[in-house]
Amino acid sequence: MDDYAVVLNAGSSSLKFCVYRRPPSEAWRLEARGQIEGIGTTPKFSAKDEAGASLGRESLDAGSVRDGRSALDALASWLKARYGGARVLGVGHRVVHGGATFAAPTVITPEVLETLRALIPLAPLHQPHNIGAIEAVAERLPGVPQVACFDTSFHRGQAPVAELVPLPQDIRDGGVQRYGFHGLSYEYIASVLPEVAPEIAGGRVIVAHLGSGASLCAMRDGKSVDSTLGFTALDGLCMGTRPGALDPGVVLHLFQTLGLSPKQVETILYKKSGLLGVSGISNDMRDLVGRDEPAARLAVDYFVYQAAKQIGALAAALGGVDGLVFTAGIGENSAEIRERICRASAWLGVELDARANEARGPRISAAGSRVSAWVIPTNEELVIARHTGALLGLTR
Ligand code: ADP
Predict the structure, then answer these.
(1) Of 245, 244, 233, 240, which is closest to residue 286 (Cα–Cα)?
(2) Edge-to-edge, what's the strand order for the sheet holding 54-59?
(3) Whose CA is nearest to atom 7 of ligand 1?
(4) For ligand 1, is residue 286 a contact (CB within 6 Å)?
(5) What is the pLDDT of residues 302-319, one digit of tens each?
(6) Are the C-beta atoms of residues 392 and 89 closer than 8 Å to each other?
(7) pTM for the complete prediction?
(8) Which has the minimum average pLDDT: 23-27, 73-77, 122-126, 238-242?
(9) pLDDT above 90: residue 125
């Protein structure tokens, strides 16, 4: 009988999954990847095989797939119909916040789960969904080991000045520090640089993970030196619905002058700001690029301005830069945003090759460019699969 391992990335409105299969006496290989999106509104299921051929695409009943748990049930029925009777050897999860405790992936125990629950206030938009998926799998597949892989772990080991939140000691003692996020994506990029971009792999690289959440990571020799996300996933770049870097006085204003409640402020900061808040139209870059409305243009201009400005800051943290890498939804798919960020970074020595940029690279800088630029599709699920396999002793 073949063995299987499953990777889950549970978000607020989507459940992404990968299924890895290990036929007798062969190595693991990707069998299927897909997602249930639109959870809570108009749920849709889609899955593809390793070669990208569709394995299914259907609208799901909004009444029965209304939250993460029911989405997991829908996924379980699909898996059962397709792989009925198969043995699941392990499940790996993306977990956004590992706090200061988890500097590496870990096998989930009741104690680990308790620690992860305590981190919910630091990542209210993501952590509850990650934990919900772990609990749901434990109920449905009791005895199957699960592994948590954290978006924060890759950033551990930064210099004290990069991790510091300069508040009084008693507050810092409660875990207030800069953690950084998107670490699974950065870890994947660091793992493929020696093969895809060997000339910069050992050097100073800024990776721009530009998706609905967005951040930059400064790497030296494949290790995180600094990043733009900090204590929570609110800092740094402008994002789909989050503002990025904000004068903390604005938050005081929301509480003291406007009299908003903590819940209202949380909703503004996590769900109503960024591209959506500035444009008043959409949080999706695809809906904004090329539009004429001044508010849409301002949102895109601000996104590009902040990205370029913070590339400059991370270049300073690195003492110079050898390469710039674009990844995630916007970074991989929008030639226009890449072009604009590279143009704004010309002073650093980035010179774009327009045709290579349209063709998505992987190298998108001109031959003589002092700083090379790249597009590298990320693969967070593969990183989770590797860690899950290694921690559970599944790999051979
Ligand atoms: P998540 O952070 O949810 O994993 P992704 O990395 O998949 O997100 O990125 C999703 C975002 O990518 C979308 O919200 C959209 O703004 C953006 N995106 C995808 N394709 C394009 C495109 N062709 N042009 C501009 N933006 C795009």
Answers:
(1) 240
(2) 54-59, 44-48, 29-37, 15-22, 3-10, 87-95, 146-150, 106-107
(3) 329
(4) yes
(5) 999 999 999 999 999 999
(6) yes
(7) 0.94
(8) 23-27
(9) no
